[in-house]
Amino acid sequence: MAPLQTSAAQLVGKSPHNATMMLSSGGYLLTTSQMLFSLEILSFIQIPICLLGLISNIINIKVFLAMNAFNDGVTLTFLLLSVSDFCVCCSSLGLVIATIISSEEAKWLISLRGPSATPGKKLYMFSQIDPFFLSTFSIGFLQIFNVTTIVITFYLALTRCLCVVRPLKFRNVVSVKKTLRVVAISFISALLTRVPIMGHTGISMTFDLRINATRPRMWIHPRREIIKDIVWAGFDMPLCIAAQITLPVCIFIMLKGLTSAAKFRTQAMVSNDSCPAAQDAGKEKLNQKDIRVVQQMIFVSILFIVCNTPKLLTHIGTTVEPEFQIGAWQFCASPNMQHDSTRLHTCSMTARVSTHAVRQRASPRIQHVNARSR
């Protein structure tokens, strides 16, 4: 995020390395007061969503561990997806809290502007640390685990799609070692791409003219924006586009496979023949466990596509038109809006997976099928 520049008359510092807050609102769709009000409303709405995601993922982790996740590649993949989503929700909750603190400080500053403002008055400090630093720190971790979640979702959809196309050949393609290897590579890649960005951001004890007090305050190196654009164009954008294109194809293939499996089972129930040809054909069909996993992945993939589209369009709009924004308070508003769809995707997906996982644990018949298929 670019450091916002204002003048000393707007109660901010002049240092080019200090992150400052824009209080002017000319030429934008929303005024500063309207933007602050909108951010607070969105933040208070997102708090229960984040809490729902945290609770759901705790249930996920507990259930998948009870299902001996480290003995089955598919269950382990869902477990790691829940862990990644849990970290996304934690980062999102930190971002929401930092946004609320930033909004309160901005509203306090706005209320002191004008003839009624008292020069040299010690302003109220809502946070001992610059809330902009808390926002940037939370966004960095959110992006790391968000990339990990995207890769795991993509990996699950692709492997399930291959399992539908060739059940006998790819049924055991999701092994424990392969799953751990894929997740480790995705996490390390996301971490390495964020280290240069976060390394060009720091915090130091600085006198903050806005609150007339000294506190740890964030600074941003001028080259940070260039590095961020390179990472987005070379890593984030291709990953999002690849997932957005590939997942619909996987959904189509999986739906076709489920339809074919349903027709086969209907014909098998009608016909009582047990000829060798029918038995050989039955081996090529999906078993009950595969069908449940495919159904779950279809839901997760559709939810990912629906919730990832607004974020992708926002990023593309920002890339094509740098001035693309809604309000003047760019620093806190832009990252918050860009990750709203991520939070909604994560919390909704984890709630659905939790319901499915609890249902699996509560059904002895399904537990027996899972143990037998392994």
From TrEMBL:
Keyword match Transmembrane: yes
Keyword Transmembrane: yes
Gene3D superfamilies: Rhodopsin 7-helix transmembrane proteins
Alphabetized PROSITE patterns for the sequence: G_PROTEIN_RECEP_F1_2 (PS50262)
InterPro entries: GPCR-Ligand_Int (IPR052954), GPCR_Rhodpsn_7TM (IPR017452)
A GO CC term assigned to this protein in UniProt: membrane
Ranges where the G-protein coupled receptors family 1 profile domain occurs: 56-316
Bilayer-spanning residue ranges: 35-55, 76-101, 132-158, 179-197, 230-255
Subcellular location: Membrane
UniProt keyword annotations, A-Z: Membrane, Receptor, Transmembrane, Transmembrane helix
Protein name: Chemosensory receptor c
Organism of derivation: Plakobranchus ocellatus
